[in-house]
Amino acid sequence: MPTSHRSHTRIEMKPAKKVMSHWNTCPADILHLIFQLLSPAEHQALCLVNRSYQSIAAPLLYSRIHFTWLVKNFEDHSESEPPPPVTRLLRTLLSKPQLAAHIRSFHLKGRIWCVGEARFKFPKIHIPEDELDESIASIDRTGVPYREHWSQELRGGSVDALVALILTQLPSVRHIHLGGDFTRQCALTCMMLRSAICEAGTYQLCDFQHLQTLSYLRRETRDEAYGKSIEIRNHADILPFFYLPNIRHVRASMDNMENWTWPTPHAPVASKLTSLDLYTIREGCLGEILSVTKNLTALSWKWYYDTDVRDQFVTQILDLDKIGTALSHVQETLTDLTITADSLHQNIPFGHGITEVGSLRAMVNCARIKTLQIPLIFLVGFAQDKTKRLQDVLPKSIEFLTITDDLAYQSNEDLEKGWHSWEWEDYTIPDLVGPWIRERTRWAPTLKRVTLLLEWMNMETDQWLSRVREQLQALSVQTGIPIELTGEAG
Length: 490
Hints:
It contains 17 helices and 14 strands. It has 490 residues and is α/β, with parallel strands linked by helices. It folds into three domains: 21-62; 64-273, no CATH class; 282-490, Leucine-rich repeat, LRR (right-handed beta-alpha superhelix), CATH 3.80.10. The strands form two sheets. A twelve-stranded parallel β-sheet has the order 1-2-3-4-5-6-7-9-11-12-13-14. Strands 8-10 form a two-stranded parallel ribbon. Strand 6 (275-279), helix 12 and strand 7 form a beta-alpha-beta unit. Helix 12 runs parallel beside helix 13 and helix 15 (429-438) runs parallel beside helix 17. The longest helix is centred in the N-terminal third of the chain and has 24 residues, at 2-25. The radius of gyration is 28 Å and the shape is elongated. The chain starts with a helix and ends with a strand. This is Leucine-rich repeat domain-containing protein.
């Protein structure tokens, strides 16, 4: 029996040893394919097994760093979660800089600015005292002239100073997203980026030469933490990125600049930049950006007006001529154009109206546009003018057209005297689009679909008369062009 027992034991142990042996002798490229299917927590566990596994799992673990600072109770927004472990990440990158080379995607966003007192003060993230010296030493090594101020801000828990320092540790990053609480203050981040990109080689900073996509978003409304100050500008944060040789997509909130100046004596040549999503920048400055994007194929731009902003750009005037001039910079390359519009009223019930001037006739020259989403008023204005024709503003190359009713709420009777109100009624829409679609062989020979996204006009259900739908359906059958009528964004 003992002999039989020992024999049985050997039979059980051999498969386990073989399994471990097979894993340890498995080619690294096969292990990499397997490890790719695992979660970050599993990657972290594998890093602790042995050096061989760590060499494969660590690049996967650090390739994508995404942190979100959340509200603990979304129902009453009364409390926020503790900040994400960004200080722990910084400590790791400073002590093991070889790991930073693996980071390809870096994502920080936060929503605690909407929580109680956090609305009125900037968030703080403090580095532990026993780790501050190493962080300060890293700032000193950069050699930048503002390093003392940077160090002081970091000691005080400035999120801006912390973000700026983390960014200096990312030599191989390809994708950056910063938003919410991580962009409420940005002066130091701005200075660091200008030094790193526009004065490359002068200081001990990474130059972001591998960066391909950037998302840098700030609140559209005024930040209460600034008190009554409304002169906070962030355009300088974004502009250095246009100098990067491999930048392909930028999604950013940009303020307007009274005297437009690029951060170097020469404007950038963003030859690889093909996609732009821009917010808060108005038509007066839009052309400055588009003038350096000669190969742009996709543009999404949000026009906005905010009653709480007082400057020469964010006004109640919608200048269609300036928009047309801005688009002329990319008329040879642009294929996808999305324009949305919004008016932010701080405790003012539609009392400040918007009026349009000029026309968007210059858009006809954007002869490569295939997909277009645009508010109706950008095409024909607020007034119900039946002499306006879509063919006078729409390029012939359009395949997919979406017309929205952005700013349609400006039909309110409380508008200040002299400002335009929305006059277009639902029953006039078929008369506007009908002639253009019927003569599509002349005006839009490649047209494939028309979508009418009319959210505000659809607020009153009795406005949508059955004959309007019938007219559009008949028009669709007659022309063979699908016409979708909807009150909801897709």
